Amino acid sequence: MSWFRWEQDDLILKLRIQPKASRDSLVGPYGENEYKITLTAPPVDGKANTQLVKFIAKAFRLPRSSVKLISGEASRSKCVRLKSPQHLPIPLED
Asked: Which burial class, exposed, middle or buried, applies to 34 when counting CB atoms under 10 A from its CB (0-12, 13-18, 19+)?
């Protein structure tokens, strides 16, 4: 799988976002290169991006400041950096 990689202690995730879903959830691998996440927020005025950072921070038990959107601000495909996550709510297997 190539939807995640480690850069020293940081975890980089390639995500596929489905906005306006019925609930926020970690769905699972999406194809070979992305991990699907559903969000209740609409893709308007950055609301889905804000919700994504909040949801990822909570899921990985990190402060929001430790989650950075690297790319994909206006796309459903996004790349996110997590600073030194200790809790992994999804299995990461090579």
From this structure: buried
Phi, psi dihedrals of residue 61, rounded to the nearest 5°: 55, 50
pLDDT, one tens digit per residue, over 55-73 is 999 999 999 999 999 999 9
pTM: 0.92
CA distance 22 to 39: 8
Q: Give the position of tokens 């209740």.
A: 40
Instruction: Supply φ then ψ for residue 51, to 5 degrees.
Output: -65, -40
Chain position carrying tokens 């990190």 = 62
Domains and CATH numbers, the chain: 4-82 (3.30.1200.10)
Given CA atoms 46, 6, 36, 83 in this order, what sign does their dihedral have? negative
pLDDT digits (tens, 9 = 90+) for 1-47: 589 999 999 999 999 999 999 999 999 999 989 999 999 999 999 99
Parallel, antiparallel or unpaired: strands 25-30 and 67-71: unpaired
